[in-house]
Amino acid sequence: MNKKEWQLAVGLDALALVRPLLSIVGIAEMLGKPVVSIGSTLVITIIWVWVASQKSEDPIKTLAATGITYGLLAIILSAILLPILTGQLQGPVLSIYGISSVLITNLIWGVVAGVLAKILQSARR
Predict the structure, then answer these.
(1) Do 108 and 122 touch, CB atoms closer than 8 A?
(2) Rounded-to-integer distance, Cα 120 and Cα 112, Å
(3) What gap in Å lies between CA 42 and CA 38, rounded to an integer?
């Protein structure tokens, strides 16, 4: 991937960090966790697909990279914020299985979104 594709991935990651922040700071719990989690994931995915279909030469690679780097950032964010907010380290960072599942899940999310973006991109041409 070129520099432009990585910049796009990082920008899309920044947007997606809204999702774990909603959970970490308790907004998702307050508003209804399943609805907020599913809704924010859906909105983020739509934005990822739209932006990648417009701006990326290879949306599958770009969104796969976006998914994996988002997973890493979400793990780091929870490892930093949860001890501050709750007084103890929690979350996926405590286990290799937790880390692996977050990374694999987000990689799959990125690839699926990338395939959708590629379909949208192809349909426009």
Answers:
(1) no
(2) 12
(3) 6
The answer to whether the beta carbons of residues 84 and 118 sit under 8 Å apart is no
Q: Which pLDDT belongs to residue 30?
A: 87
Range of lowest pLDDT (11-15, 33-37, 57-61) = 33-37
- pLDDT exceeds cutoff 80 at 69: yes
pTM of this prediction?
A: 0.87
The three-class DSSP label of residue 52 is: helix
Cβ atoms of residues 62 and 52 within 8 Å: yes
| Pure H helices in the chain | 3-16, 18-24, 27-31, 33-55, 59-86, 96-124
Cβ atoms of residues 56 and 50 within 8 Å: no
